[in-house]
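Q: Predict the bound structure with adenosine-5'-diphosphate.
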Amino acid sequence: MDNIKIIESAREFAKQTHALDSSGHDWWHVWRVAELAKRIAEQEGADIFICELAALLHDIADEKLNKSEAEGLEKVNDWLENQKIAKEHIEHILTIIQSMSFKGGGRPPMKTLEGKIVQDADRLDAIGAIGIARTFAYSGAKGQPIYNPEILPREHLTHESYRKEQSTAINHFYEKLLKLKASMNTPFARELAERRHNLMDSYLKAFFLEWQGKA
Ligand code: ADP
Ligand code: NI
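A: Predicted complex:
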């Protein structure tokens, strides 16, 4: 099967898997990450096919959509084997997906350029104008307030306690989003992150001025 057909069926697979999602892993997030990954891959001279395919599949194994991460990875593995993609490509893509998460402090860092690019694209989609929108959408879905000056940002929390404890949408910027710029792997993603980060900075400044009735 040629690469264009594989990409087409990956799109269908991702669309179906993410159709009913309200946890911030919707199909259009996946679509944006794939578009960004392609663009970064062109700039960085990486394998565009691997980047796009890994991006399209990157959230299918997410723990929020599966009973366990292992079960999710199995689903992706089965799908890849059905496409008759070279074994080395399958392993490469599975390794990328496994290493994607920011939360897993113990995870090994991304080894390949393609992995670094897909991770950058996913992190870029969490910041800037899109990142702001996703944060409020996610918070609304979880019943978190926009902001509450009596609730301080959570720091140094484990992944588990982080998930359990309630916070606010604005706190999420300090807990995670403003830290993402420093975690970009590739020069081109760093450039894009700079603009998106500055936009969030301006947004937060305006938010607090308005909160205090000063603007
Ligand atoms: P990913 O798996 O892509 O890193 P997450 O599951 O961490 O994404 O989050 C999905 C979206 O929801 C992101 O835009 C993220 O910033 C937002 N989000 C995640 N956790 C929170 C939270 N506690 N409060 C507000 N937004 C959140
Ligand atoms: Ni994602």
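A: Residues 25, 29, 33, 58-59, 122 surround nickel (II) ion (ligand 2) (CB under 6 Å).
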